[in-house]
Write a structure and sequence with these properties.
heterodimer; A: about 550 residues; mainly beta; Immunoglobulin-like; 6-stranded mixed β-sheet; 5-stranded antiparallel β-sheet; B: about 600 residues; 5 domains; 8-stranded mixed β-sheet; 3 helices; about 45% strand; globular
């Protein structure tokens, strides 16, 4: 039906019962949701492409289970999907860690992936009240639960914070024994809560050590109620004050926001906060309040002002104010140039370049390589004429990489400056404008898909598998893909060349580190050609664990 | 990096300056412009946060914003100590906006006008425990609806007067495993409560209920919603909702008109879906500027009338881009192919000029050459929209700026329309004499009498076209301003209405259309203050505020409308409460009888 709305012809489509993602294909995903063994109708299952998960403008596929608890979403193009049923109040005994409520599926064209079932169980409830030394209600604090016994070490955070009466209610819990706590533990938190009302971590009924806490039994039959917890206010903390200035001229630099990161024992920034609301004023002065004892990194954030770039400063708060931090800023540099595809690329591929993002990264030479927060990034897109411009680039050695989902499949073949190849990054000086940069890109369109079989035992629950296509060619990156529950994998947008397919293990829950298992016979060499889609199957054998090797 | 347009647009309700206790002491000579500006004074603002039962509120959050926003350096946060005290020090002189908040508490009463503070001020905030609404959500079978988001929208004040509805942005609460929810810390008013649907601002995790349209208490769409009255400190129970699984429809389209030079590449395009009439936000989303298609889709939209608008921040000191406002009706089907075309917003730059009274002509004390303290002077720019396309639209568009030391004012991100200046001069010695377009500013001597007079922008207002950057406005200030303070009294044996609007109308016939001479003020206790007035003869008139106008609603001067102005003049002349103001006169206790 076509109607006229304010002078525009619009087509009104009939409502679809299930709304799918935007393109159409021939594959499908289906399964059944049960609760306590009985079919669960009316449950919303969300099926979304994994690379669109955080894309606010693209809507996910949403499908509702029918009276038999069955759901199906079809007309799907081949891609990697995340399937998540939304059934709060119930828990999934299958889930491997607290984030994994979903199933990941690598779907091929025309594949009908059925049997994606979720068997959920009604959860237990723990409820009580948080109060302080004066008996007053503690509002908006989060309660955590640690399950004791069993093989899984799990920390669960209650979804809702305590209300105005101090009352909290944790539901949908797997039945078992828990210790119940609230308040902040500096080692645990990723976010620096500057100035917020905070309480010292304590465990029910109000003890400092986990071992001293009274365990709480959570069962389906009966709510564990009256689990009231007393908390102590955290000490107010100290002030951190300093000055932001141009290290070349000595003049103050205003309007630089100071973010605070927490630093762990290895010197790596683990948390990050923009709080405490202090940007440098006209004299370059800033003040942060409520900072408790610990090791921190003050990270200058020029927020839209790309004129200056600054170095983070590591410092410690012990038992007094920190009064004279010096944040040195230097005039950012500008890098200009062009980006183009390799000679011989098809014209429609050339157009795809527009919208691809590049990032110029300058690492703080004193920070460790794994320190995510230590890089200063400047971004540029590629416009219709192929122009590229990075502003506010930090002094030092700068590497240029592709970034963002539009860059998928592209790789940087080589970078030249005024015709000469750039192999180890650009040397950038303060305030400089570098011109004549040429970035040559290639678009890969080779695909490898297949199935991984695991032999010689079963993988522990806390170990996941992924697959990497390693290349020795420095001008292109590795490809990689994850392996879904059925053992299927998908690696896309590989450039023509030779790759070593390697299956890797990783820890899928804290404390992340080296997995306890190794794999044998887990590699295969594959030739990839652009435009080609090939299937490769691998068998991996579980090797001896590290523990056994030590003996 | 992304930057929401909301950070740039400062939409504030009307305000009044903090009570002035002592005049500003500045050196009594014209500044020598070739010298370096004197170093800024530094000082602090301190105070206390208490609850209405006299108890201090510790760990309350204090937010400080400089009135002259010039970047992140002007925003500060602090917390009250165990006695409820706070200090913000190391502040440069100027005007500041201050607010205090703490969980579950609200302001005791929203001031009619926003207050600004200066260095040395001591501020006491009194907060009260907000209201609570609690209830249970079940589905058609009586089963609990679990972890469904609860949203509240304040649609009227406590007396039932419609306000621009405001989403309650407190702690986002969800129903628990019994379907029970509890929302606390609510300011007094009338609310509609809904469960499910999409959040207006998409952040945080998604919920199972996003694919439905929201269900309103007791079990209705928005039109059938029952309003709930909540007072501060009150707990309203039993607000049980029977959930309806209703699907909405989609609105999809694309955003066009982004400049080809990719200057906006690092910013996101925000697309907003507002309910019409009014401006309440229903949903919003972001598009990456790098997305070549710039397509968008709103899903689960309930039936109704809407207005779509897209905008994107373009960097500091640049005007943002905004699209046309696109009206859309959703009724039983999807809407597609909506195009929102971006174009740059407009701006106004104005220059202040001071016209000091020549030495020989000075009759009164305030007619000195004392310069204006720029950092404590504020000018409002208001959009004059006599017949807004959107009835029930937001309170009149209002921006403020403080002049630089050179007297420059800048207002960015304006839509096309007519604008007027409204002074908020702290220094009572000054008034706005004229607003002219620079090229037509009168030459001091040898004016050709045959030339038409320069357009009087004080009368006409400043017309701004789409995308226009006007830099030609000159605001001339003269000293010798007068002021009138007083109160309204009732006729004997009559009761005084609690809400009054006081009008100040120039009595001279020639000034009938000189809009710079008109002033208006809403008052609840009958007192009024008019300052920064050009000397001359005036009438004062008190009128009742219409019953359906909410206290907080800011209304542009009624006198700006030609017909209303005529009526006001006739009424003012008839009641004839007249006053003759000479330069620098300060009338302290003028009595105005409420006539009708």
């Amino acid at each position: 039906m076509v109607i006229r709305v304010f002078g525009f012809w619009v087509l009104l489509l009939s409502t679809a019962f299930a709304q799918g993602p935007q393109q159409f294909g021939t594959a499908s995903i289906s399964g059944k949701v049960t609760i306590e063994g009985k079919p669960a109708p009316g449950i919303t299952v969300r099926i979304q492409k994994s690379d669109e998960q955080w894309d606010n403008s693209k809507s996910p596929g949403l499908v509702t289970t029918d009276s038999e608890g069955v759901f199906k979403l079809d007309k799907l193009p081949a891609a990697q999907y995340i399937v998540t049923p939304s059934v709060p109040g119930y828990y999934n005994p299958q889930k491997k860690n607290e984030w994994q409520e979903s199933i990941t599926i690598n779907l091929s064209d025309g594949e009908q992936a059925s049997g994606q079932d979720f068997a959920l169980k009604r959860g237990a409830v723990v409820t009580g009240r948080l109060f302080d030394a004066n008996g007053r209600a503690i509002i908006e604090q989060q309660v955590v639960l640690k399950k004791i016994g069993g093989s899984k070490a799990q920390t669960i955070q209650c979804t809702e914070f305590s209300d105005d009466r101090g009352v909290y209610r944790c539901y949908g819990l797997e039945p078992g024994k828990y210790i119940v706590g609230a308040g902040t533990d500096p080692k645990e938190n990723n976010v620096v809560m500057i100035g917020a009302r905070s309480y010292v971590r304590a465990w029910y009924p109000g003890v400092a050590q986990e071992e001293q806490s009274t365990p709480v039994e959570a069962t389906i039959e009966k709510e564990a109620s009256g689990i009231d917890l007393k908390l102590e206010r955290k000490k107010k903390g100290f002030k951190v004050m300093g000055r932001v200035f141009d290290s070349d001229t000595g003049k103050p630099v205003p309007n630089i926001m100071i973010a605070l990161g927490t630093v762990n024992d290895e010197g790596i920034t683990t948390g990050y906060s923009m709080g405490a609301g202090s940007g440098s004023n006209a004299e370059g002065e800033f003040k942060l309040e409520g900072i408790t004892k610990g090791k921190y990194r003050a990270i200058p954030q020029p927020y839209g002002n790309t004129e200056y770039v600054g170095d983070p400063v590591t410092f410690e708060v012990d038992d007094g104010d920190v009064t004279s931090l010096e944040i040195k800023m230097r005039k950012g540099a500008t890098i200009q140039g062009t980006a183009a595809l390799e000679e011989g690329a098809a014209p429609d591929v050339q157009r795809k370049l527009v919208g691809v993002n590049l990032v110029a990264q300058a690492r703080d030479p004193q920070a460790k390589e794994t320190d995510w927060y230590s890089a200063t990034n400047s971004w540029s897109g590629i416009d219709a004429a192929g122009n590229v411009q990075f502003k506010g680039v930090r002094t030092g050695n700068v590497t240029i990489n592709l970034t963002g989902k539009e860059a998928k499949g592209f790789s940087i073949r080589r970078i030249e400056r005024d015709g000469a190849p750039v192999t180890d990054g650009l040397q950038v000086n303060a305030g400089e404008t570098i011109t004549g940069l040429r970035i040559v890109l290639a678009l890969g369109s080779g695909t490898i898909r297949g199935e991984i079989k695991v032999e010689g035992g079963t993988l522990p629950e806390d170990v996941g598998l992924r697959i990497r296509a390693k290349t020795t060619n420095k001008t292109q990156g590795d490809g990689w893909g994850n392996i879904d529950a059925r053992g299927k994998f998908l690696i896309e947008n590989l450039n023509s060349g030779s790759y070593d397919l390697v299956v890797e293990t990783f820890m899928n829950r804290p404390p992340y580190g080296k997995p306890s298992v190794t794999l044998q016979s887990n590699a295969k060499t594959v030739q990839v050609t652009n435009g080609q889609d090939q299937t490769v199957n691998l068998t991996v054998t579980i090797g001896s664990t590290n523990k056994e090797e030590k003996q | 990096m992304t930057r929401a347009l909301l950070l740039v647009l400062l939409l504030l309700p009307s305000f009044a300056l903090a009570q002035e206790t002592a005049p500003n002491k500045t050196p009594n000579k014209t500044p020598n412009k070739t010298e370096d500006p004197p170093p800024k004074r530094k000082g602090s603002i301190k105070g206390k946060v208490m609850s209405d039962d006299g108890q201090p509120l510790e760990s309350a959050n204090i937010n400080l914003n400089a009135a002259k926003y010039s970047g992140m350096g002007d925003w500060r946060q602090a917390q009250t100590d165990d006695e409820g005290n706070f200090v913000l020090d190391g502040l440069a002189s100027g005007l500041y906006h201050l607010s205090a908040s703490t969980s579950a508490y609200v302001e005791a009463e929203r001031p009619l006008e926003q207050k600004f503070y200066r260095l040395g001020d001591v501020v006491t905030f009194t907060l009260v425990k907000g209201g609570v609404i609690t209830g249970r959500v079940t589905n058609g079978l009586g089963e609990p609806v679990i972890a469904a988001p609860i949203r509240l929208e304040r649609v009227s004040d406590l007396e039932g007067r419609k306000i621009n509805s405001e989403w309650w942005y407190g702690q986002q609460r969800k129903t628990d495993d019994r379907g029970v929810y509890r929302v606390y810390g609510l300011p007094a008013g009338r609310y509609v409560v809904s469960v499910g649907g999409k959040a207006p601002y998409r952040h945080g995790s998604s919920t199972a209920y996003e694919s439905d349209t929201p269900t309103f208490y007791p079990s209705a769409s928005r039109e059938g919603a029952t309003e709930i009255t909540v007072n501060i400190g009150e707990e309203v129970r039993g607000i049980d909702i029977r959930y309806r699984h209703e699907k909405g429809h989609s609105i999809s389209g694309k955003v066009t008109g982004a400049p080809a030079d990719n200057s906006l590449l690092s910013y996101s395009i925000q697309v907003e879906l507002h309910r019409y009439p009014g401006n309440a936000l229903e949903m919003s989303l972001y598009i990456q500027a790098t997305d070549p298609t710039k397509s968008f889709e709103f899903i689960t939209v309930p039936d109704g009338e809407y207005e779509l608008i897209a905008n994107v921040y373009a960097g500091e000191n640049k005007d943002s881009y905004q699209s046309n406002r696109r009206r859309v009706t959703v009724k039983g089907g999807n809407v597609t192919n909506v195009e929102l075309r971006l174009s740059p917003l407009s701006s106004i730059e104005a220059k202040l000029e001071w016209e000091a009274t020549p030495e020989k002509e000075r009759k009164a004390e305030c007619q000195t050459t004392r310069p204006l303290n720029a950092e404590e002077t504020m000018f409002w720019l208001v959009k004059d929209d006599p017949k807004p396309a959107n009835p029930l639209s937001v309170d009149a568009v209002l921006r403020h700026d403080l002049p630089t030391e050179k007297g420059e004012l800048k207002y960015q991100n304006l839509e096309a329309g007519v604008y007027r200046f409204s002074p908020r001069l702290l220094d009572e010695a000054w008034y706005i004499k004229s607003i002219l377009a620079k090229d037509d500013a009168p030459k001091p001597k040898a004016q050709n009498p045959k030339l038409p007079p320069p357009p009087d922008l004080g009368k006409q207002g400043i017309a701004l076209k789409a995308g226009e950057k006007r830099k030609d406005i000159v605001l001339t200030l003269a000293n010798g301003a007068a002021s009138v303070r007083g109160r309204v009294v009732a006729e004997k044996d009559q009761a005084l209405p609690s809400r009054l609007r006081i009008h100040l109308v120039p009595a001279e016939k020639e000034a009938a259309d000189d809009l710079l001479r008109y002033a208006e003020q809403k008052t609840k206790d009958g007192t009024f203050t008019f300052a920064n007035l050009a000397p001359g003869k005036y009438w004062l008139l008190a009128r009742r505020v219409p019953d359906d106008e909410a206290d907080g609603k800011r209304v542009n001067l009624l006198a700006w409308d030609v017909t209303t102005r005529k009526t006001l003049r006739a009424e003012a002349e008839a009641t004839n409460n007249a006053i003759e103001l000479t330069p620098c006169q300060r009338v302290k206790e003028h009595k105005l009888t409420f006539g009708k």
